[in-house]
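Example 9 (inverse folding). The structure is encoded as follows.
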């Protein structure tokens, strides 16, 4: 539609230009040059419209195929429903990270360790505090990692959940926190 209107306007401009150039009595050279510039501008606009139309025609099949693929995938997901929960039994060596972690929470406004204390030094000090509570029947306790918290607290990750369970017993929590330089509690 717009291209047809533009084409008819171009034709009118061409006719106007011819009528101006055929009459030698008129000194309409500025009008003639303006008509020529308008004709060139209209040709450029028409050419751009044709290019856009061609691009749309080229892309339409690809866009339709992409939309069809998306619709099929969406339908497949909807038809299959939610995935079932993992019902695999957990083996003796299968445990979560949380089962091996101990949260040390300092007294409000305090930090268990100063910011400049290295992770290795923190692990050494925590191992020292834990060792103070150990007895002959205690499980082997190895520290795998320490994570500083924004509130000054600390998460100590151990290598086994048995070690973490042993630390969480009330009497061992009291012995361990009693050896720390900063008042703290062990969260369950």
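The amino acid assigned to each position is listed next.
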């Amino acid at each position: 539609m717009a291209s047809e209107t533009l084409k008819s306007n171009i034709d009118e401009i061409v006719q106007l230009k011819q009528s101006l150039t055929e009459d030698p009595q008129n000194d309409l050279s500025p009008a003639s040059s303006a008509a020529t510039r308008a004709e060139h501008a209209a040709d450029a606009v028409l050419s751009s419209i044709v290019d856009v139309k061609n691009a749309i025609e080229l892309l339409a099949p690809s866009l339709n195929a992409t939309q069809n693929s998306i619709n099929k995938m969406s339908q497949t997901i909807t038809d299959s429903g939610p995935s079932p929960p993992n019902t695999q039994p957990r083996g003796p060596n299968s445990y979560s990270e949380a089962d091996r972690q101990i949260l040390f929470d300092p007294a409000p406004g305090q930090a268990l360790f100063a910011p400049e204390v290295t992770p290795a030094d923190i692990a050494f000090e925590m191992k020292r505090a834990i060792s103070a509570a150990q007895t002959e029947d205690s499980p082997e306790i190895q520290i795998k990692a320490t994570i500083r918290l924004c509130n000054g607290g600390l998460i100590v990750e151990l290598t086994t959940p048995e070690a973490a369970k042993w630390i969480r017993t009330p009497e061992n929590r009291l012995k361990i926190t009693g050896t720390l330089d900063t008042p703290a509690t062990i969260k369950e």
